[in-house]
Amino acid sequence: MNDNTITSAVIIGAGIFGVSTAVQLARRGVPVTIINDGPPANGASGRSLSWLNSARMRSEPYHRLRMAGIDRYRTLAARHPDVNWLRFDGGLTWDMEGESNEIAAAYRYETSIGYDAQHLSAGEIAGVTPGVDARAITDAGAIFNPGEGWVDLPSLIALLLQEFADLGGRLVTDQGQAAVVVNGGRAVAAETASGARFTADAVVLATGPAVPKMVAASGQTIGDDTPIALLVQTKPRAHPLRAVLNTPRVAVRPAPGGTFSLDADWAADEGVKVRADGGYDIDDAVVAALLAEAAKVMEGNPRLEVASIGVGGKPIPGDGEPVIGALKAIPGYYVAFSHSGATLGLIVGELLAYEVATGAEHPMLATFRPERFASR
Predict the structure, then answer these.
(1) Which pLDDT band, with edges at 50, 70 and 90, does 376 fall under?
(2) In CATH, what is the architecture of 9-46+153-221+318-373?
(3) Class of domain 87-148+226-313 (CATH, top level)
């Protein structure tokens, strides 16, 4: 049933939040235009580790939202069982040695909320998940979460855009920076740097790390804790690793074609310098060190080579929780800004489209409203 109360929508941003929302609106019969500054997935979605999880500790509403997100990926995987860009081979994590090691506490917490977890010693890991160098595991052991997985977001976005096109959606790329046009106190259009204007009843801002600055132009506040992230993609390498590894010095995620995606906060902090023109300088020695750290945790300590490097902001709200929904001070203006964009990508698109199309608020988004920052 078509229950929409709007006649058109424009979405700024062709990352996972923008494209997922657009597809969901198109399914409801809403005419939608997506505009993007460059090609699809050219921002944070194109350089995301894309680990599908709800591991460790966070608020209960955030955990529920992430679990719903993982559920949608399982449905997608059942419909597309042969794709090489969506896998559920589990996740393995361990902490550094010493008093800061929280593996035992994390295991107790995860089991207390029903999150599938196994606490393993180094000697037990080979029998549960392949491809890990057990010598890298610290004395407190590791947690294996069988229900976790990974997705290649550019591949998913391409699939969703094909459905979007089939539903009559319009994708406009390479438009440069866009802005939300507010007239008479409400959002009425999106306008590109070239002056092209796309009018609509609803405007959805899904521009990743740019969201807080863009809403500030309309006098609104969203807390922002966005850091610079560095993602290294390796050249293909035959290796048995299947699980996502989250370790003290490196995160390693299998990727399509026998490649691996690598990241670490320290590598971004030490290896990336922001130039005055907004570009980035990357320290080759830090990249080499990140490759070496990845090799240490992989069975056989393989020689890994760089295929590509992605650098840019990693969207993280100021309080760490998602920011999803309407800017109530400006009717017709909606935002999607969050960490864990991969895990949340499908469910956020579904719930945000529900709100845009119906004008109703979804209860799962109750604690994630943008206005929570207005009083801070």
Answers:
(1) low
(2) 3-Layer(bba) Sandwich (3.50)
(3) alpha beta
